[in-house]
Each structure stands twice: as C-alpha cells, then as structure tokens.
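Suppose you are handed a protein chain with no further information: no name, no annotation, nothing but its sequence. What can you learn? This example shows the usual starting point.
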Amino acid sequence: MGSKDKRSVAPNPKALLPIAVFLVLYLGNGIFFEYISPSEGRMGFYVVSVVLAFSIALIVAFLQNKDRSFDEKIHSCAEGIGDDNIVIMLFIFLLAGAFSGIAGEAGGASSTANMLLNVIPARFVVPGLFLIACLISMAMGTSVGTISVIAPIACAVASNGKLPVPLTVGVVVGGAMFGDNLSFISDTTIAATKTQGVQMKDKFRTNIRVALPAALITLIALFIYAFTSKGADVGTFEFSIIQALPYFIVLALSVIGINVFIVLITGIILFVGAGVITGTLTYSTSLSSMGDGMAGMFETMIVTILVASIAALMKENGGFEAILSFIRKKADSKRGGMFGVAFLTAFMDIATANNTVAIVIAAPIAKDISREYGIEPRKTASLLDTCSCIAQGIIPYGAQLLVAANIAKVTSFSLIPFLIYPFVLIVFVIISILKEGNGKKTD
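A reasonable first move is to predict its three-dimensional structure. Written in structure tokens, the prediction is:
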C-alpha cells in the first residue's frame, strides 16, 4: 500500500509525527473523557471522532517534507488509496454492512443463539455461551454485534441460574473475539488479508492452528467450572430455525473457501427470504436495514482512506524505514520480525482502541517487515488479525468491553478476570512464533 516509487528512503523518525498527533488527539482525549471528566451517557472514546483525529493527522503529514510539492503529495495519497487491495477492501466493507444490517433485522442472530441455548444442558450453560458467541461471531463477522445480541441473553441466564454476571458476559466477549478473528466476513479479516495480498482461506488455516487450541483450553476451563458448580435453571428461549439457517449456510460457504463477495450476496438473499417468510421483514424494512448497515461501515471506509493516505506520505518521508530500522536493531531473525509485527499491531490497537484501524495502520509496515525477514504473508496476516483482536478483547476502554459492561450494568474492569480466551490466546501466539520463527532474516 503506497507509492510505486522505489527510491531508497533514509530513516526519519520525524515522519511518524502524524501518528503521534493522532494518538494525542484520540487516545489522550479518550482517556480524559472516559476516566477524568466523563460525559454522562456517552463513552469517552467516542467524544472525539476517529475520522477527525486522522484528518488532523493527515494535515500534519502534508505539512512535512517541504522538498516535495503539494501535487506530488496528492499523487502519493492517490496511489495509496488506489491500491487494488484497498479498493477491494472498501467494496467488501459495503457488502458486509448490508449483510450485517439485514441479518440483524431478520432476527437471525437471536434465533441462532436461542436455538443453541435450548439444546445445551443447564449444567453446561457457561461453556455453551462461549460456544454460541464463537459461532455467532464467525457467522456475523462482528464482535460488537455479537456482544450486543448475546450479552443480554447472558445476563438473563445469570439471573435465572444465579450465576456471576461478569462470568457469563466475560465468556461471551471471549467467544466474540474468537469468531471475529476467524470470520471470513469480519472487517479485521478483510483488512488483514487484503493488505497482505493473501487468500482468506490461507489466513484462516494459519489462524485456526493458533486460535483453536486456545479455544479448546478455554472450553476445558469452563467445563471444569461447570462440573464443580451446581446446575442452573436458565429457562427456555424462543427461536426460529428458518431465521437461524442462513447463518449456518454462510458459515459453511466461508469455511469451504467460496469467494467472499458470493458468500455475502448469498447471505443477504437468504436473510431477505427468511425474514419475509417469518414476517420479520417487509420490502421497505429490508431496504432500510441494508442501507443502515452500509451506512454503519462509512466511518471504517473513511478511516481506511485516510490511513492509506497518511501511510503513503509517512513511507515517502522515511517513517516506515525508521520503524524498520528500530526493529532491525532489536531483531536479527525471522522470529524477531514476527514479534515485531505482533507488538506493533497490539500497540496500535491499544492506542486506537479499534482493531480494524490498528490493522490498517500496521499493515504496510508489517508487509515490509515480512519481506525483509522472510515471513510468509499468510502468517503476517494472521498475526495482524490475532494480535489486534487480543488487545481489543482486553483493553477496558475498547468498544467490546464498554458495550458488554453497559449491557450488564457492571464496570468493564470487572469483566477482565473472566476474559479467559484472549489471555490463553496470547500464550499460543507466543508458542507459534517461537515454533515457526526459526532462521535468520533474508537479505
């Protein structure tokens, strides 16, 4: 992503100033309005628009490097935005928004969750909630959407079964991050694969070798809890098989490697049919829900365009080379390069509190690191997606924990001890890097 100009660029740490400006504006104001001077009824990290923060950062990038004309800088931005993978990513975001909107309006997520809850024995409801969140998130492609749907059910289960609310909601957050990390229609998957130029199925196969063992360990821990605690009467939940079926079809099509455009269009058509048959959708609500879903993706698309422009200018000005130079000093092997990608991505997520934005920022630098250190692109894509989801699933000021805490009427910090999956996943990511990162960097 970036300029086609292949001239060598000297390392220039000052070229990273736009990112520093963004962090001060977004992270600084977010912390201030969330913890120092909270605004009632509004999450602090949403007081300052991420689009505004990146727009100001872009202006700073344009003011740098007076040796290049304004027109030359515009050309660099245009090349960054016009990258084939960026264009594909923008189109997929639109379709994913339409799919999310129609699926939610049709009642697919709640019906799927309720159907699974009705077949899970009461004693195993806690591991069951984790599994349900995993499946729903993989099918929906959104962790926040999954939490919004499943967290109220988890609260009802906790109340009926006299279980700790932070426990039931915490396992839902963990499952949501598992699905978001692996889903073929998640914006994080789209961003990670398209920026690295790899097939989604290849990234999935690499990812599953890390995520599945972590999920199994999490399940074992939850089953141990289930066996050592008394059973819980969680009640019954209403569902429609017709509303749930499209999710399973979409999930199956994704896993077998069907093109993501075909999967999303098929899912939209299936949910329109399911909604009309069950009476949850009409012609007008179908159109409006798809439009609302697409509109919900506009901010992500604008951020992608802004970050592509900033990244192109920073690369031209030597910012990327400065980061690479720092990594070269700290790592002389493929393993070191992989840890560099992992830490860079996690840091960007901690700074931006948005895993998709973190991937888009880190991706071009990660691509250069992978070339220099001989890291397979699919592994780089996996690290980008996985490490951003780990950080996003743990930080108490991220949308996932804030939404979950708001629904459960608890603090986001109270959920952290029950986020078993993200913490276990960290261990398996480290193991995978140590195992796969043998060898010196390539010349």
